[in-house]
Amino acid sequence: MRAFYARVCGRVQGVGFRYSAIQTARRLRINGWVRNAVNGEVEVWAEGAEEQLKTFLAWLYRGPEFSRVDTVKKEDQSPRGYGDFAVEY
C-alpha cells in the first residue's frame, strides 16, 4: 500500500474533475479524497496498490474531457487508511 498527495493545476474546476476523479479512483480501488482549492487547483490524496496509483496518476495528467491539466505536483506520502474515495470539503 502506497499513497500520494497531488495538486493538479490548469482548467480543473467547473469541468467535473472531482466527480470524474471519484469514478476513476473507485474503479481502480483507490481510497482517499479530492477537493477544490481556493487558488483554482484541485487537491488529491490517493492510497492503494502501486500499479493502480500509477494508472490514477496518469489519469490526473489527462483529467476529464473538458479539463486542461497544465501541471501535476505529486508528493509521496504514508497511507492513512482511508476506506473509500470521496469529495472532501
Account of the 3D structure:
The protein is 27% helix and 40% strand. With 89 residues, the chain is α+β, with helices and mostly antiparallel strands. It has a five-stranded mixed beta sheet with strand order 4-1-3-2-5, covered by helices on one side. The chain is built from two helices and five strands. It is globular. The model has no long low-confidence stretch (mean pLDDT 98). It has one domain: Alpha-Beta Plaits, CATH 3.30.70.
pLDDT < 50 runs, ≥5 residues = none
Structural class: alpha+beta
Strand content: 35-45%
CATH architecture: 2-Layer Sandwich
In total, the number of strands is 5
> Helices and strands, in N-to-C order?
EHEEHEE
Instruction: Write down the CATH class.
Output: Alpha Beta
Q: If helices are DSSP runs of H or I spanning 4 or more residues, what is the number of helices? A: 2
Distance from first to last alpha carbon: 25 Å
Q: Which value, in Å, is the CA radius of gyration?
A: 12 Å
What's the average pLDDT? 98
- Percent helix: 25-40%
Quick one: overall form?
globular
Number of domains: 1
Strand order of the largest sheet: 4-1-3-2-5
What summary fits the major beta sheet? 5 strands, mixed
Q: Give the CATH topology.
A: Alpha-Beta Plaits
Question: What key phrases describe this protein's structure?
Answer:
single chain, alpha+beta, Alpha-Beta Plaits, 2 helices, 5 strands, 27% helix, globular
Write a brief caption for the model.
By secondary structure, the protein is an alpha+beta fold.
